[in-house]
Amino acid sequence: MRGRCRTVLVLVLLAAMASAAVPAVAQDTAMRIKIGEKAPNFKLKDVMTGKVVTLSEFAGKKVVMLEFWTVWCDICKREMPNLVRLYSRWKGRGFELLSIVLPSGNVEDIRKIVREHKVNYGVLLDADLSVSTKSYGLAGPIPLKVVIDSKGVVRYTHVGDYPPGEDELPFVIEDLLKEMEKGK
């Protein structure tokens, strides 16, 4: 009996240490812009349509998620089908997904990846890194997701992909869309 209690105690302590080690919010993004701050506006060209897109055009109208990625990032490409599904699910309710590609390789490489993965959201090229490193201060790993509410405030960030079954993005988006609908 005593050994069993000790085993249970050890398991409880290990679980407590594990939950303390995993932050409730996504890990540090190594990005200058933090949750609660106004997201910097930008102007970038969509590599597929040639259309110039600004963040400010969505202000007051949509919840926006920025996805920073590059062509050599296997995790970035692996998660694209999930992002396509996410965007398809929420786009009609006031959600916009904009991927921001960091320069590496040529534009044709980007277009090929976009076609292969049937990407249905905006793919913007940050050719001079003015958005990713200068405006947002990105200095860490990718992929990086930044969710911005309809008022233009950064409300959620996440680096990397999600373990199977642990994607919190749908909940974040749903909550922000509800806030927007209520006029908060």
CATH class: Alpha Beta
- C-alpha geometry: globular
N-to-C CA distance: 55 Å
Q: What is the ordering of alpha helices and beta strands?
A: HEEEHEHEHEEH
Q: How does CATH name the architecture?
A: 3-Layer(aba) Sandwich
Count of discrete alpha- or pi-helical segments spanning 4 or more residues: 5
**Average pLDDT score:** 84
CATH topology assignment: Glutaredoxin
Strands in their spatial order, largest beta sheet = 2-1-5-4-3-6-7
CATH homologous superfamily name?
A: Glutaredoxin
Strand percentage lies at 15-25%
Structural commentary:
This protein is α/β, with parallel strands linked by helices and 184 residues long. It has a single domain (25-182), classed as 3-Layer(aba) Sandwich (Glutaredoxin). Helix content is 36%, strand content 20%. It is built from five helices and seven strands; from the N terminus they run H-E-E-E-H-E-H-E-H-E-E-H. It has helices at residues 2-21, 74-90, 107-116, 130-135, 169-182, and strands at 43-46, 52-54, 63-69, 95-101, 122-125, 144-148, 154-159. It has a seven-stranded mixed sheet. Strand 1 and strand 2 (52-54) form a beta hairpin. The termini are far apart.
Short account of what is shown:
It contains five helices and seven strands. With 184 residues, it is α/β, with parallel strands linked by helices.
Write the layout of secondary structure elements.
Elements: H1 2-21, E1 43-46, E2 52-54, E3 63-69, H2 74-90, E4 95-101, H3 107-116, E5 122-125, H4 130-135, E6 144-148, E7 154-159, H5 169-182
